[in-house]
Every structure is written in structure tokens, then in C-alpha cells.
Amino acid sequence: LATVLAVVRDEPGTDQQRLRALLREQGCTVLPWSPEAAVPEGTGTSIACAVRASAGAHGWIVALADMPDIRPDTIAAVRDAVAQGAPSAAPFYRGRRGHPVGFGAVCGADLAALSGDQGARAVLERHPPVRIDVDDPGVLLDIDHRGDL
After folding, report:
1. pLDDT tens across 94-141, in order?
2. Cα(first)–Cα(last) distance of the chain, in Å?
3. Over the range 31-50, which residues count as b (16 or more CB within 10 Å of their CB) and which as e?
4. Which residues of 114-129 are buried (b: 16+ CB within 10 A; e: fewer)?
5. Which residue, among 13, 37, 9, 35, has the nearest Cα to 23 in the 3D structure?
6. Residues facing residue 93 across a β-bridge
7. How far apart are CA 72 and CA 52, in angstroms?
8. Eight-state DSSP code of residue 121
9. Which is nearest to 3 in space by CA: 34, 36, 27?
């Protein structure tokens, strides 16, 4: 059974408040913004917060809120690769690695130790992802950078 954890800033009067409410409505567990993340450090800190909150999980899928166009079957393919033993897995569209990225339990300690805004790039260098070729341009589409494709 999958548990969805979300780490979202809790800033009054911002879109984050709305996002937190929407995620809860959809059954997600929204983690409290941790003291070490009080100063927005970035993706690495958020990933570490969620992994520490779910220690003992068989794996994690790291999905970014600014990439909403990823198809459910792509997420399922990443999940399945991790469930079948891949240390990490990522979708590729037209040769480019995209999101979300899945991590097996073997990556847990490395993920829990992340900080700052580097995300999990260093973890992927130690545990190269199984490549999942998909016909899903959403894996590359960051709504903050729509013109980049």
C-alpha cells in the first residue's frame, strides 16, 4: 500500500496554503515544515524530510509539484521498476531523463542525508537509474519553465 507524503511550505496567504489543502483532500499526508527547513533550503531538504518520516519504506517516488502533466502510467512504470528491485528508476522521453524518479530502499540513508537545493543528483550518480522509455512529454514539462522545451 502506497503512502503519499508531501512537503509543502506553510506560508500564510500563499498558494502553498491552497496546495496543502488540495493535497489533504486527495488523501496525501502533508508533513509539517520541519525546523531544519525553516529557511527554504530546497529540494534536497524536502526529500530528506519525507524519507526520514517514512523510514522503513521499500522505496520512494520523488515527484515535483511544478511538473503536473506526468501521466499516471508513467508514475506506475517508475513504481513497478523500484518494486522489482531497481535501486533507482527514471522515465526518459526522447533520450532526456525526466521525473518522477523512483528510489529503492538501498538509497534511503543517502536520501535522508540530503540538504540544500541539489536534490538527489548525487544519489543517482551512486545508483544510476534504470531507464524507462516513455511517450510522455510531461516528464520534462516544468510549469515554471514552459518555454524551455
Report:
1. 999 999 999 999 999 999 999 877 789 999 999 999 999 999 999 999
2. 35
3. bebeeebeeebebbbbbbbb
4. beeeebbeebbeebeb
5. 9
6. 96
7. 25
8. H
9. 27
